[in-house]
Structure formats: C-alpha cells, structure tokens
Amino acid sequence: MDLTLLIQKSGADNKDATDKLFDLVYNDLKNLARKVRFSWRNENTINTTALVHEAYLKVLNSNEIEHKNKLHFYRICGRAMRYILQDYSKKKNAGKRGGQASKVDVEIHNQMQISDEAIENLEEIFISLRQLEQNNKATYDVVECRFFSNMTVNETAELLSISPATVKRKWSFAKAFITQSLKNQN
User: 53: Cβ–Cβ under 8 A, 6 or more apart, which residues?
Assistant: First the structure.
C-alpha cells in the first residue's frame, strides 16, 4: 500500500493502517527523533524510542491534523517531537524549583550554530522560536521543516510551495533572528 494512502487512512478508527504505517515509518521517525534529540546535545532529555512512540501517538490521536502526504506527515511528527521536548524540559526545570537549568548547545543540521554563551537552557530556545512564529510565521515554518522535521531545502520548498532560494533566505534569517533573540535574553 502507498505510504501517502496509509498516512491518510491511519488513525484510531483504522488500526490495521495505523500499524502498517508505523512499521513503514518507524526507522525514519527514529532517525528524526535521534537527530532532534541530539541536536540539543542534552543527554538528560527523553530517550529516542520514547520520543518516537509519544510523537507518533500524539500525531495519530490528533483529530485536528489532516495528513496530506509523506512530507506533511513528517513535518507534523517533527512538530510533535518539539512540543514533547519542550514539555519535558518545562517539567524537568519546574522540578528544580529555580535551580540551574541544564546547559545545552544547539546545532541545527550543522548549519545553525548557536554558541554555548548564548544559550542557558531549552526554554530560552523555545521562547525564541515562539517569537519567530509570532513575528514571521513563514520563516518559522521553514525552521520547523528544516530542524524539527529534518527536511532538506528541496523538501521544505516542496511542502511549503516556495522556491529553494526562498527556503535558504528564510533559513539564514531564522539563524540570525534566533541568535539575536538569545543574546537579548541574556
């Protein structure tokens, strides 16, 4: 069965399609989760397998999400992983009751590098991402595809219906925006 058709048929009401889809996408999702987790370089985050399973269930249990195709599905899975990591970070930091948050260094696909000095914890990164989403949704969409869904420039361009050159411009702008936002937070 075609992956796009499985994506469209999957959900709580079609266990067979959901199981087949999981078997087909599991390795891809595991690679995506590994890249997302380790791009934060934070050893204390949720493990890769748990992140895959939690994201997959979150995506399939969401009634609001229409899975159009493979790229869209992976984008939504990447978004779910981001929210899971963000929630995990908040819970972990809340448990510390004001203690020092974990230090992280972010390297986004070896293209977006933010120095150790600019980053104190994951929450600051998420604040920067929320600011970018509020100020420039189109650029945020590029970050979501490139970073959280591990898409190439061409895949991002195809999914967002923009040119690869526009993806590259928005990606460069996003790097500068997030770097500046993190500096302003410190």
Answer: none
Which residue, chain included where needed, has tokens 């690869």?
Answer: 164
Tell which residue, 140, 125, 138, has the closest CA to residue 90.
Answer: 125
| Rounded Cα–Cα distance for residues 21 and 3 (Å) | 7
Contact (CB, 8 A) for 90 and 46: no
Which of 17-21, 84-88, 128-132 shows the lowest per-residue confidence on average (mean pLDDT)?
84-88
Q: What distance in Å separates the CA atoms of residue 136 and residue 132, rounded to the nearest whole number? A: 5
Please state the φ and ψ torsions of residue 108, each to the nearest 5 degrees: -95, 105
Question: Buried b / exposed e across 46-85, counting CB within 10 Å, b at 16+?
Answer: bebeebbebbbebbbeeeebebeebbbbbbbbbbbbbebb
Q: Copy the structure tokens of residue 28.
A: 């891809």
Whether the full predicted model's pTM is greater than 0.85, yes or no, is: no
Contact 170, 138 (CB under 8 A): yes
Using an 8 Å Cβ cutoff, are 28 and 22 in contact? no
**85-123 confidence digits (pLDDT tens):** 877 776 666 655 454 444 443 433 333 444 444 334 566
Compute the distance between CA of residue 140 and CA of residue 173 in angstroms, rounded to an integer.
10
The answer to whether 111 touches 143, Cβ cutoff 8 Å, is: no
